[in-house]
Amino acid sequence: MKQTDRIEALGALFTTFLNKAKDRGFIVLDADSDHDQYAQFKLHDGALLGEVSSRQWHEPERPLAPASVAGLAALGFTGGGPEKNFAKDDLPSSPAELARLTDSLLRTAYELDDEYSVTVHYLVFNDVTLPRAQHFTRDMIEKHLRGKGVHFLRDDDGDFRADFQSDETSGPVVVWLVASGPDETVYTVSSVSPDGAAPELRTEAVERCNEWNNEQRWPKATVCGYEGAWHIRTAYDVDLAPGITQDLFDQVTYNAISASLEFWRWLASPQESATTSGDAGDSRDGGG
Q1: Residue 181 near residue 219 (C-beta atoms within 8 A)
Q2: Whole-number Cα distances in Å, 139 to 53, 154, 216, 252
Q3: 165 falls in which pLDDT band (50, 70, 90)?
Q4: Distance separating alpha carbons of residues 234 and 218, to the nearest angstrom
Q5: Under 8 Å CB-to-CB from 8, ≥6 apart: which residues?
Q6: Three-state DSSP class for residue 202
Q7: pLDDT at 63 over 80
Q8: What percent of the chain clears pLDDT 90, i.e. is strictly above it?
Q9: What are the start-end ranges of the H helices in 75-178?
């Protein structure tokens, strides 16, 4: 592509980008379709940041030539190195100026001839208005459960109980979705399985729960109670005092319930026999 045509095309591209992009919108332009040789521009706080690839992200031993580094510095772009780009902030907002600057940057950095091509690797306008966080209330729990078609009960405090049945859990799993704390902003999704499979001995149950907790982030599994009256409980807790969007709340709740059911499936799965210590009479009472 001839230089005049290339700069004209870049000018039109920057016109569209600057007219449509919102804060954090960005554009990445590759030179000769080489993803390691690019210039990128990002809007932030009313300013435009430009970067030129150091070419040392995937190949640290492929730095720019010293003359190229000096040429970029003359254009105001400094930095570079492994996993770092050459950068300059507060660039001009004129599409024509940006087009000429981009052409100079790419030719200088990568020692390109006058007929190299430019391709758009990424173009993100970031023009989607994000939903605002809401104050967490039990209404969000109810909205989620109704949206998923889950049958539920409510207790006197307004908290929710939903029962889930799976062939892989060997018994129903009772899930509670609770708002607690001084301002009722602590959200807890807990579960028990009163009739589900579980180790016979409390000591073995503790070992199984510890094994799960060491391997999984959440929910946390604990053995509640002592001697002849104990049960296993899982819980996922999060403080939602800062607020949360309904979409994010739905995803958190879905993940918490899915992981809880996964725990009970895992607990019911066959395990290799292990030696445990403790009273042989310290058996589970099956209570929730």
Answers
A1: no
A2: 49, 12, 29, 15
A3: confident
A4: 9
A5: 99
A6: helix
A7: yes
A8: 75
A9: 95-110, 138-147
Please provide residue 59's backbone torsions phi and psi, each rounded to the nearest 5 degrees. Answer: -130, 85
List the single range of 130-139, 203-212, 227-236 with lowest mean pLDDT: 130-139
User: Which pLDDT tens digit goes with each residue over 124-162?
Assistant: 998 766 677 899 999 999 999 999 999 999 999 999 999
Q: How confident is the model at residue 226 (pLDDT cuts 50, 70, 90)?
A: confident
Q: Which of 215, 221, 238 is nearest to 141 (CA)?
A: 238
pTM recorded for the entire structure: 0.53
Residue 281, CA distances (Å) to 148, 195, 202, 204, 223 in order: 43, 19, 10, 13, 16
Phi, psi of 100 (to 5 degrees): -65, -40
Q: By the 8 A CB rule, do 169 and 260 touch?
A: no
With both helix axes pointing from N to C terminus, report the angle between 95-110 and 3-20 in degrees, rounded to the nearest 10: 120
Q: Are 231 and 287 in contact (CB under 8 A)?
A: yes
Query: Which tokens is 31 given?
Result: 């030179």
